[in-house]
Design goal:
179 residues, alpha/beta, Rossmann fold, 5-stranded parallel beta sheet, globular, binds adenosine-5'-triphosphate, binds (3R,4S,5R)-3,4,5-trihydroxycyclohex-1-ENE-1-carboxylic acid, kinase, metal-binding, transferase, aromatic amino acid biosynthesis
């Protein structure tokens, strides 16, 4: 039985796997509201994630993620929620909504980001992506954890955005509306 708590769809996965992109496509198709946890944190703090990491460190950022998770559980319903790459570790993830893990290999993610015209800028914004060897090790450690947290797993490598959202909509039986 799927966890339909709050009727939110919570997208988890590694940096650059496509959480933001898939979220926006789902928002368009379902006409639901959408929020992104990294964006919520940046607006709450009025500064970029890189600045938060540089000035106050990762532990402080993780506290902000926990605070955001509590707020989402209490206040957000029927939404598409995209998350930062490490957000899946918050204690109450299950209580926020149905957890969808967007899965790809690490090389698949790097290939995608390289194809993206603003790839360098995108990588520079993500402190944990700056050292490729460390990022690969983090990916390896996390892969099993993402899978354990997921209500459903959607493979995204070498698939179109349209095919990916079609599968999510079908599996979660989300209502869609004409554009
Ligand atoms: N299925 C897809 N097909 C083609 N390109 C894609 C697909 N999914 C994502 N992309 C592209 O990959 C890049 C990374 O996607 P996106 O920014 O959505 O990732 P993210 O998981 O939100 O990253 P982060 O958590 O670091 O912000 C973007 O340039 C996006 O256009
Ligand atoms: O994977 C991670 O731990 C992170 C991913 C980004 O989305 C940001 O949330 C931040 O850079 C940390």
């Amino acid at each position: 039985m799927l966890n339909l708590k709050n009727k939110n769809v919570v997208l988890i996965g590694f940096m650059g796997v496509g959480k933001g992109t898939i979220s926006r496509a789902l928002i368009k198709k379902t006409k639901r509201f959408g929020v992104d946890t990294d964006d919520l944190i940046e607006s709450m703090e009025n500064r970029k994630i890189k600045a938060i990491f540089d000035t106050d460190g990762e532990a402080y950022f993780r506290k902000l993620e926990k605070k955001t998770a509590k707020w989402l559980e209490k206040n957000v319903k029927n939404a598409i929620i995209s998350t930062g790459g490490g957000f899946f570790k918050v204690d109450n993830l299950d209580d926020i909504g149905t957890i969808v893990y967007l899965r790809s290999s690490f090389d698949g993610i790097l290939k995608r980001l390289r194809e993206h015209e603003n790839a360098d800028l995108k990588l520079a914004k993500r402190p944990l992506m700056s050292d490729k060897a460390k990022a690969r090790a983090l990916f390896k450690d996390r892969s099993v954890l993402y899978e354990a947290k997921a209500d459903i797993i959607i493979d995204v490598e070498d698939r179109t955005i349209e095919a990916i959202i079609k599968e999510i909509i079908a599996v979660l039986k989300l209502k869609t509306e004409k554009e």
